[in-house]
Amino acid sequence: MSLPKVSEQTPPEPKSSKDSVSPDQSSTQTETQTRGIWKIVTLKDAFFSLKPSRWFDLDNYAILLPSLRRFAWDIYSLDPLLVLFHLAVRAWKGIEPGITIYFTSQLLSAVEFCLSSASTVFTVTPLPLD
After folding, report:
1. Between these two residues, 112 and 123, which has the higher pLDDT value?
2. pLDDT bracket for residue 18 (50, 70, 90)
3. DSSP character for 35?
4. Beta strand 30-35 with 20-23: parallel, antiparallel or unpaired?
5. Domain ranges across the chain
6. Which of 18, 40, 67, 85 could cross-link with 33 by S-S, CB 3.0 to 4.6 Å?
């Protein structure tokens, strides 16, 4: 009985620590980057791009609307209550600085009025502990 032959393979050469960027041979629209142990494949020219020259091209955005609507519906269908809570928190985060500025202005106006009027003495009396 003979043993199968084991072919000798040379181990791969260790890659340098620098990042290497090389175009992918299989397609001219992709670019392959090797960063450490990761291999990243990116599109050179995507259908939808946020380049400044295309920033105001509304045709690209109109094509995306059905996909965005579907995405929003999928997220809403996962947990409607959590989505509504998230939207309420985001709305509060937008309104809260304005409310804070308003009440701060009212408080400072009251302090200014009390300090500017010499006849009125502003005193704070502690509440009874009963």
Report:
1. 112
2. very low
3. E
4. antiparallel
5. 18-47, 48-78, 81-118
6. 40
